[in-house]
Write a structure and sequence with these properties.
The chain is of the alpha+beta class and 308 residues long. The protein is built from twelve helices and ten strands. A hairpin with a 5-residue loop joins strand 5 and strand 6. Its EC number is 1.17.99.6.
Length: 308
């Protein structure tokens, strides 16, 4: 007969699957010993650029019990976003994760449903949901709970479906059965390191965030540096190069989440269309997309930079 811990673990994983998550793994909520020196080194080398928020809440990033009192388990969840159709060739490029509806809203809604399910079927369980908006090292937790390994491009990778998915967490005060990490399958491959247009992968498994095209096109609010001229490979929001060249992404399968489908105009826009984009078109194509983060002014700045 199953003990309660195993029974609850199975219930949660089955419900996560029913809600459309790609996979669900669970690890014990405790201090991330291995990640602490890595994060400290990364920050000391200013690899966060102007992302000052990365320096905040250092202790909370490494210890979930400081985020959720009496927490026992970190439930990590993956949600596929790999699109069935992609932009035309020879155009300005938008990262695939931002094609459709802003993932924060889609995932938050699913996490809310999972939390309600836990309350109804298990009982009074306290916790918090996290989607890339709080000091949580989501890739570290996903790797700890056996959902994949962190590749040389610093993204989570799985043998079955590559890396085109979002990661989210529920941190709760309920003890569950814990999963174990999987082994690294990057081997001697350096495809991502060799392909990075700005050499942002400074060492295997270490990405200098301040050199990444995603950082320049989304996070950096200042003028784009002239030293980066002609290095953006036509990316105007985010960058997928390190994922696109990864051999494991040959196994990516299209998502089945209608909200992640793009506005049809996005897929057919030419460079000329982008250069002439008006604020109205921007609002129509990206009304619910994560691209709104960079605003119309940020996107047109990026387009002009590629043209100058």
């Amino acid at each position: 007969m199953l003990n309660n811990k195993t029974k609850y673990t199975n219930l949660i994983k089955d419900e996560a699957k029913r809600l459309g998550f790609l996979s669900c793994g669970i690890s014990k909520a405790k201090f991330l010993e291995e990640e602490a020196p890595r994060l400290e080194r990364w920050l000391n080398n200013n690899m966060n650029g102007q992302m000052d928020y990365m320096q905040n809440h250092f202790d909370k990033r490494l210890d979930p019990t400081k985020l959720v009192e009496d927490s026992k388990s970190v439930i990590s969840l993956l949600l596929n976003y790999y699109p069935e159709q992609q932009q035309i060739n020879d155009t300005y490029k938008v990262s695939k994760y931002a094609y459709g509806y802003d993932y924060h809203h889609v995932i938050k809604s699913k996490l809310k449903q999972l939390s309600q399910f836990i309350q109804e079927h298990i009982g009074e369980v306290s916790g918090r949901a996290f989607v890339d908006s709080a000091p949580v090292l989501d890739k570290a937790w996903a790797a700890k709970s056996g959902l994949g390994w962190i590749g040389k491009h610093s993204n989570l990778l799985t043998q079955k479906v590559g890396s085109f998915y979002f990661i989210a967490e529920l941190i709760i005060d309920l003890e569950l059965d814990y999963d174990t990490p999987v082994t690294d399958h990057c081997g001697t491959c350096t495809a991502c390191i060799d392909a990075c247009p700005t050499q942002a992968i400074v060492d295997p498994y270490v990405v200098d965030g301040s050199k990444c095209i995603s950082y320049f096109t989304i996070e950096l609010k200042d003028q784009l540096p002239n030293t980066m001229k002609s290095k953006f490979d036509d990316w105007i929001f985010g960058c997928d190069v390190c994922q696109d060249v990864c051999p494991w992404n040959k196994f990516s399968k299209p998502h089945n989440q209608p909200l992640f489908n793009p506005d049809p105009d996005l897929l057919t826009m030419t460079k000329k269309d982008w250069q002439e984009i008006t604020e109205d078109v921007f609002k129509k194509v990206f009304q619910k997309s994560a691209v709104k983060r960079t605003k119309y002014s940020g996107l047109t700045r990026n387009i002009k930079f590629l043209n100058s």
